[in-house]
Amino acid sequence: MIKTIDGIIEAARGGEPGIIAVAAAHDRPVIEAVAEARREGIAVPVLVGHADEIAAMLRELVETCRPVEGSAVLFPST
After folding, report:
1. What is the 3-state secondary structure (H, E, C) of the chain?
2. What angle do CA 31, 36, 38 make, to 5 degrees?
3. Is the pTM for the entire model greater than 0.85?
4. Most CB within 10 Å of its CB: which of 23, 25, 60, 61?
């Protein structure tokens, strides 16, 4: 039984990365969390929100992304 956040992360590492969609993703803690999940290989984030703000925050974190339709940002798969 998984009892901690670390346990959840370890379980997620054992499989294929899941695609997660995040609405209103133009929030720094959200960006930091999805970037970490991507680096850990447990998620492929699709970020929906103010694309320019999201892209700027990702650049600060040295993450690459691809804008989609002007209001969404898609990380490439890792």
Report:
1. CCCCHHHHHHHHHCCCCEEEEECCCCCHHHHHHHHHHHHCCCEEEEEECCHHHHHHHHHHCCCCCEEECCCEEECCCC
2. 95
3. no
4. 25
